[in-house]
Predict the structure.
Amino acid sequence: MSDLQELYRDMVMDHNRRPRNFRKMDQPTCSLEGYNPLCGDRVIVYVQLEGDRIADIAFQGSGCAISRASASMMTESVKGKRTDEAEGLFQAVRDMLTRPPGSDFDEDKLGDLVILAGASAFPTRIRCATLSRHALPAALQGQAATVSTEGEGTP
Ligand code: ZN
């Protein structure tokens, strides 16, 4: 196992045991449910906006350790950021996970989320790792329906 994969495994275990921002929000500005039918993961993301800034973010749901840990990491990394910064971050994660094997990616931009690179070593679980990342941008764009990872060509 590479260092990044080991780090990824440790982070997943830690965030699964003690998920950050794991609660229901009473009056969110927007919220959205993400669903990953391949694994049965469900994540509801709640966002409190102040202008274009993510003042608060929380999530709830049920699913595997990876979906829970990834949602926990995601909420930590975007809290306090502007919505366009958050979307830029998700684009960077997407680029990292879909890049050709062995090629470089922008580690500085990713911050702690660079650990999600470890997810690419477990291809069948990538949708678990990216479920909450699908839900948040959709929530910010005001979509009301459940977002599913089903049927997408890329993670
Ligand atoms: Zn899962």
The pocket of zinc ion is lined by residues 36, 39, 41, 63-64, 66-67, 128 (CB under 6 Å). The beta strands are 30-36, 41-50, 53-62, 147-148.
